[in-house]
Amino acid sequence: MVIKLNDNFISGYQDSDNTNLKIAEVKIVMIDPIVDICVLKLITPSNVKSNLRIGNTDTLSVGEKVPIIGFPHSDLGRVVLTQQTTEVGAKILLNNSGAKTKHLVLNIQARPGQSGSPVLNLKDSSLVGILIGPYVPTLSGGISIGGIDPQTLHQTTHVVSTEYLQRVMSNVVE
Predict the structure, then answer these.
(1) 33-62 burial string, b = 16+ CB within 10 Å, else e?
(2) How far is CA 103 from CA 3, 5, 22, 110, in A?
(3) Which of 21, 30, 74, 164 is positioned for an S-S bond with 39, CB 3.0–4.6 A?
(4) Looking at residue 51, what DSSP letter applies?
(5) Window from 56-60, 88-92, 102-106, 152-156 with minimum mean pLDDT
(6) CA nearest neighbour of 21 among 39, 2, 41
C-alpha cells in the first residue's frame, strides 16, 4: 500500500498539472472497525514530520469554527490539497456494536476524497477529529437515482474524535 506525497508546490501554489507521482510505502499497523479508523506506518524512509499533537473533540463547543484539510473531489482526478473552514453543528454519541463513541456533526457537505481528512482545533492547533463522511443516520428502504442516494444529499458531515486514535496507537507494537 502507498500514499501520495504532496510535493507539487511552487512558490506557495500547487501545480495541478504536475503528473509526477512521489509515493511512500505504508503498512496498516492497527485497525479499529468500531470507529472506522486505522493507523498507517511509513515504510519508505522519509523526512515527513508533523507538529500536531493529538487532542479530542471534548475541547470544542457547538458553533466553534474548525478547519478541515483534505482532497475534495479527488475521485474525479482533482488532487488539490484544500483547507475548508466550517462550524461544529452538534456533538453526538453514536452507538456501534454496543459501544457509544464521540462524534461531531459539521455544517459542511463532505465530498468524495475527504474521508480521513484531519479536523483541527484552531485554539491549539491540535488534531481533534478524523472526517468519516456524510452524516447519514441509518435508514432502511433507500433508493438510488443515477447512482446517487438521495439520503446523502445534505449539508452535514460527521467526524470521529481522535481520542480513539490515541487508544488505537497505544496498542501498536513495534
Answers:
(1) eebbbebeeeeeeeeeeeeeeebbbeebee
(2) 26, 28, 33, 15
(3) 30
(4) -
(5) 152-156
(6) 2
CA 131-136-167 angle, to 5 degrees, is 40
The answer to the question of residue 51 being in a domain is no
User: What is the per-residue pLDDT across 106-159, written as a single tens digit (0 to 9) for each?
Assistant: 998 887 778 889 999 999 989 999 998 876 666 555 677 776 666 666 668 889
Question: How close are the terminal C-alpha atoms of the chain, in Å?
Answer: 18
Question: Which domain does 119 fall in, by range?
Answer: 57-170
What is the domain count for the chain? 2
> Are 28 and 89 in a shared domain?
no
Residue-wise pLDDT tens digits, 6-43: 777 888 898 888 777 788 888 998 888 888 888 888 88
Distance CA 12, CA 1 (A): 29
